Structure formats: C-alpha cells, structure tokens
Amino acid sequence: MNDLEYQAFLNWRDIEVPCPRCGGSGSIVYPSTATWRGGVGGCMCTPDVCDLCWGSGDTSQPFANLRKLNNELTSLRFRIKQVEQKLNDSKKGDPE
Ligand SMILES: [Zn+2]
Description:
Blueprint: H1 3-12, E1 27-30, E2 46-49, H2 66-93
The chain binds zinc ion.
C-alpha cells in the first residue's frame, strides 16, 4: 500500500490520529492465543482487536477498553457469588 492508498484508507475509516500499534486497522496479531486477555496462551499467532485503540484505529477516539470491561465483569461476578453465599448462609440459619 502506497502513501496515497494509506491516506485514502485512513479517510475511509475517518481516522484522525492513526494508532501507532495497529496503523489504523484496529486489529493486530498477538504472538499467542491469549491475545489481549493475557494469561496462558498457546503457541499460535492470533489476530484480535488492537489493545491500544480497541478497534477504532484512532488513538484520539478509542473504542471501549475490553480489558477494563472484562475486569469489571469478573469483579461483578465475584460480588454476585458473595451475595449468593450470604443469602444461602442466612437461609440455613433460619428455621422455616
Ligand atoms: Zn490500534
């Protein structure tokens, strides 16, 4: 892709500040199957959403941070389990 084609691509995606990690494509290749989620991964290069612009391709207008949302979801699931455990414990203590 030459400079004119690249600029046309950026214009087509309405990108003002191309992401330095993905160049504006919104996707990168991770060196393992763990991708942006981290943790244990296999030994296969895996394409997934860019973890800098989160798919927008534009660092001035990033999409939702999936890592942050995933961490919040994990935290909420943990709190739900705690509340469920408290409810179960209180039911065990109450004779019907
Ligand atoms: Zn990016």
